[in-house]
Amino acid sequence: MLQLNSITKSYNNKPLLDNISFTVAEGETVCLLGASGSGKSTLLRIIAGLESPDSGLISFGGVDLASTPPHLRDFGLVFQDYALFPHLNVNDNVAFGLKMRRMRQDEISQRVASSLELVNLKGFVQRSVNDLSGGEQQRVALARALAIRPRLLMFDEPLGALDRTLREGLLNGLRSILQKTKVPAIYVTHDQEEAFAIADRVMILHNGNIIRAGTPADVWANPQSAYVAEFLGLGNVIEGEVKGKIKSGEWKVESSVGEFVVMCKHKHSKGEKVHLLARPIAEQNNRWSSSPARAERTLSEGEVEDEASRDVSRPEGRIQNTVQSVVADVIFQQDKYKVTLDNGLYVYLKDAPKIGKKISVRVKIECLG
Amino acid sequence: MSTCVPVYLSTFARVHLSTSHILLWLLPLSFLALAFFFPLSKILALTFSPSTFTPENLRNTQHVVLFTFYQATLSTLLTLVIGLPPAVLFSRFDFRGKTLLRALTAVPFLLPTVVVAASFTSLLGSHGLLNTILQSSNSLFPFFPLSSFTLHPFLAILLAHLFYNTTIIIRIVGAALSNLDPKLEQTARTLGADSLRVWLKVILPLLRPSILAASLLVFLFDFTSFGVILLLGNSQLSTLETEIYFQAVRQFNLPLAALLSIIQLLSALAVSILYTRLVTRNPYPVSPRPTPSLKPKSIQQKLFVTILCLLLSAFFILPLASLPFRSFTRLEADRGQRGDVQYGFTTDYYKELFINRRGSVFYVPPFQAIFNSITYASATVILSLLLGFPAAFALAHPSRLDKLLDPLIMLPLGSSAVMLGLGFIITYGKWLASPWLVPFAHTLVALPFVIRTLQPAIASIPQRLRQAASSLGASSFEVWKNIDLPILRRATLAAATFAFTISLGEFGATLLISRPEYPTIPVAIERFLSQPGGLNYGQAMAMATILMALTTASILLIEKFRLPNNNDF
């Protein structure tokens, strides 16, 4: 449906978007994920026609949009701060686009009613938009964009101004609306949880380029670069140096926090600098000793020193890497503890060790290339 | 700022403060009572005397009231229509020289009305540059007569009002325009509105409150305009203000003058109340991320910016530049001057100011007017600071009583200067021979400005600052010397310069109460302009140029002293 071809845009001679190309298929929700200033909002405005790219093509359904002004594109746009017209009430806000299309009055009221029903705001027709809560305002903005039956919906951090609980509810509502209406959508956010929850496909924008694209599960499992892993908060990103090959697809890598055996399909040479990802996943067996019983004991007595030097790797056909360090900080997080070690790494553990104890933990190490 | 004060002051201290506040109010309130409210009551009494409501007076009143509203409405509409494009220009576009051009549009508003009027005559009047150049070109090209050019007085008034009020539209509407959330426009575009309909359906409706507020303010200034109408109206056109003056001074029909003043006061009051209500409840929230101004991109935008910049520069520079130019240029023979006339550059008009000629307009050398003006202005500075400081101190941390007194002290601001002068004539007529009434009248006009300049400065000194200083070991004298004084010094200088400038340019009240032998600069300009002859005209230009220079210097001083976040309107 929507196709972007080598979109380039610079501001004050600084490149903001560099050769961006992607497509959005019918009924697909694509999420543009990027830090603030990564140009993702600009990209939305370019697609909407509110700004023109320095070069590149945008087409929809095979039709080039270069000469189509924004008001003839039929693309709905929903902003973070809603951008409701403060001089119009809920009805007139939702009806705005329909009036611009010079639709019949009875058709307008019908569309307004059905749009408001879709976002669960039945009965809000005559309300002033300035009296609504943030969540209600955002739903009016959504209804307004839906009312014109857009060919494409675009969201610019639509839930950024709302608190967490409201956000989850609205996100679920939005997902079911998108599924129901089958409108292709582009969703811009800097929040990876939001992105993973709503997107069929995620694209990560960095330095003007899409550096990673794929389904949420694929991107989560294979971040492929240190930036993506760090941006998505997947775990500790460590710099390492390849020491040598153990066997095919298995490498010895040295880092500031220890020496690891890393599985990697890519070819590496000795001395090469690589980035490693140590996911802090709270596994059942990810404790500071091999035996749960022992762990309970050491926890209660606070003695871990003598256990620390023990080799905890177990012959399971999997590579087991361990890290030894002193506990620097422990934060309670509902079902787990976030334990920060003296060497800068953090891991999630089921039980809380004492601060200042030397412990040894198993970590899952992945190569980021 | 002031919210921290009730926390700091205990209830006990507040009670004591109220009594000390009464002491603070003693001087300013007595002054107001004597200089404003007592004369006002005299005017009121005179209005309701039987000799007021004669058929002739009523007919006259009706005519004047209608014309006043007519010219003010027309001037306001014209200013609005002409002012909106520059408001868009300054709030939406970035271009070289923007700050300078914006400042230029504000200059006429800050100049005395006499200078504005003189500038217009210097360009477009019958002795003005345009006319004299056209006439001399007639002798050069006899087959192609361009005839003479004189602006119709009514058109001249409208233009002068436009000249000094456009900045109000530019500032108020421009500020509202740049505070609009750009996303509202973008959303409207994506919803299917073309740029015309974005303006009609979104931007203009959102600007309506500010357009209305700005128009009311312009209307108020046009409605109370005196100097421009007196000097450019050729005494054929008369508004409430000028008619009060004519009736009081020329016809000596004080009852009619009193009636007109009361109508004037009530109308101006109604407009100010409407304006205040409009300003205090703006229905639309201001965007946290306002619309940025951008360099013009499309050809239409570039054309819009270029043409408007040229027009604005011409409209604002030409009258202001032609005044000093005309004061140094002889374009016509002086009255009674025979033989060859030296056209071109001359300093005669300035030299003449020092000569006390027989049969001239004055009993003293005209130069004396400059001396008088400066003396009056200095006296006004002293008086208004003396009265303004206690009031400003009381209002800096206001109690309920202070808040009640606040509008009272601002009331002279809303009333016309001519009415203030009339009140002085009616009440203190027997002292009119003394030159010392003038500074009191000027103080009345300047006092609200002085208080409004000092008050925020005094209120801005947080108690915590003083507490912090004393906890660091400063004695109370050292606190006053190191904290209060440096902060208030700037505000005091600004207030003093304000008072000085206002006194220099004050025209309405002064014209009514000044003695012929003690003219001020604006009065002298009026008299020179009302006399025939090239020499008188030239001297008017010279005087106006001097006043323009003095005022410009003062404005620059105020700008230097003013607190950074003190807004104009």
SSE blueprint and pairings:
The complex is a heterodimer of chains A (369) and B (569).
Chain A: E1 2-11, E2 14-24, E3 29-34, H1 40-48, E4 55-60, E5 63-64, E6 75-79, H2 90-100, H3 105-118, H4 134-147, E7 152-156, H5 164-181, E8 185-189, H6 192-198, E9 201-206, E10 209-214, H7 216-221, H8 226-231, E11 236-247, E12 250-255, E13 258-263, E14 273-279, H9 292-301, H10 305-308, E15 321-333, E16 336-341, E17 346-349, E18 358-367
Parallel strand pairs in A: 3-8, 3-9, 6-7, 7-8
Antiparallel strand pairs in A: 1-2, 1-4, 4-5, 9-10, 11-12, 11-14, 12-13, 14-18, 15-16, 15-18, 16-17
Chain B: H1 4-8, H2 11-47, H3 55-92, H4 98-110, H5 113-124, H6 129-140, H7 153-178, H8 182-190, H9 195-223, H10 227-232, H11 240-250, H12 254-280, H13 299-327, E1 329-330, E2 344-345, H14 348-352, H15 367-396, H16 400-414, H17 417-428, H18 437-459, H19 463-471, H20 476-505, H21 508-513, H22 521-530, H23 534-561
